[in-house]
Design goal:
The protein is α/β, with parallel strands linked by helices. The chain folds into 2 domains: about 110 residues, Rossmann fold; about 70 residues, no CATH class. Helix content is about 30%, strand content about 25%. The strands form 2 sheets. The chain has a 6-stranded mixed beta sheet, sandwiched between helices. A 3-stranded antiparallel beta sheet has the order 2-1-4, covered by helices on one side. It is globular and about 45 Å long. It binds adenosine-5'-triphosphate. Adenosine-5'-triphosphate binds next to strand 2 and helix 1. The site of adenosine-5'-triphosphate has 12 residues, from strand 2 and helix 1.
Amino acid sequence: MEVRDVHHAYRRRVVLRGVELDLGAGMLGGIVGENGAGKTTLLRILAGELRPDRGVVRHQGRFGYCPQTAVLNDALTVRQHLEFFRVAFALPDLRHAEEIMEILRFSEYADARAGVLSGGTRQKLNLTLALMHDPQVLLLDEPYQGFDWDTYQRFWDLAAHLRDAGRSVLVVSHLAYDTERLDLLWRLDAGTLHADAVTSA
Ligand SMILES: Nc1ncnc2c1ncn2[C@@H]1O[C@H](COP(=O)(O)OP(=O)(O)OP(=O)(O)O)[C@@H](O)[C@H]1O
């Protein structure tokens, strides 16, 4: 993924002032920044959901975007969500989705309606929907919100596994936990990205 000179403002509120970013295949990168620094704005631009005022975003192949808040239909079951996305992604089956559900340990909720799921389980479904078509580039906005400790660890194992399989993974968070798990770390500050040291916390 290649990002060049991305600028964005909401009316007179300038949020991004020339963002540059390179994330190759087989890299696990993180972006941290304070609340309101513009992390979600940048991810929405990278995902093509928001058009920047200026600048270029290039990525090769399929991408998956896990937004900060899960976009789920409370009346549908977990399985119905998976089926809906299977059709949208034109996948032959749900094998990969089922593997992710096993890793995140929520297969037993397949027939539960989204409306009755806990916050952490909703987030597991949100993440599964972003990963089930095995995207080459993964954009994850606070993907471990509401996860318990074991799930949090399994999330990082999954991210490392995807990186080792040649995917580009970008995790955005306001917390710089577990930076030793990352290959690259940037801080979003005053509208631009600054390379940060990857250290064990
Ligand atoms: N749709 C919008 N219209 C106007 N202003 C917006 C909009 N979305 C975000 N902003 C403003 O842009 C700035 C950056 O917001 P953004 O959500 O990108 O930050 P963030 O770094 O993701 O924050 P957080 O860590 O709290 O999620 C904030 O000042 C926010 O109020």
